[in-house]
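Why should sequence recovery work at all? Because a backbone constrains its sequence more than one might expect. Tight turns favour small or flexible residues, buried strands favour hydrophobic ones, and helices have their own preferences. The token representation captures these environments compactly. In the example below, the structure is given first.
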């Protein structure tokens, strides 16, 4: 089973564009998977305080929170992508360092699994 990790900006953008990422990930992933979020991502969200924080917290109640080994979120996501996790992100700089595949938002309305 593949682990899909949700990045901070991915969660914020899904809430902003009203994308049901649970349904969308089901649509694009034809393999067994589990969704997770890092504890450091949760901390980032509390510091950013986006307008849609209430909706994001609702999402997070449905997703297991994993303890990160590294303090900086991007470093941990890069490490985990090299270990086989799929990262869902909108961060352009981070995408360059991640092992493929990754999940991204397309046209502000659906998700795509990029190779």
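From this structural description, the recovered sequence reads:
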């Amino acid at each position: 089973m593949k682990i899909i990790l949700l990045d901070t900006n991915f969660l914020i953008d899904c809430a902003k564009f009203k994308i049901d990422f649970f349904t969308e990930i089901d649509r694009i992933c034809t393999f067994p998977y589990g969704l997770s979020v890092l504890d450091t991502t949760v901390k980032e969200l509390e510091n950013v305080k986006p307008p849609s924080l209430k909706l994001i917290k609702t999402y997070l109640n449905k997703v297991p929170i994993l303890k990160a080994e590294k303090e900086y979120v991007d470093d941990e996501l890069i490490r985990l992508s090299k270990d086989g996790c799929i990262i869902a992100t909108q961060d352009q700089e981070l995408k360059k360092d991640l092992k493929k595949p990754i999940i991204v938002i397309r046209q502000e309305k659906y998700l795509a699994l990029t190779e």
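A few observations help interpret the result. Residues 37 and 60 are 8 Å apart (CA to CA).
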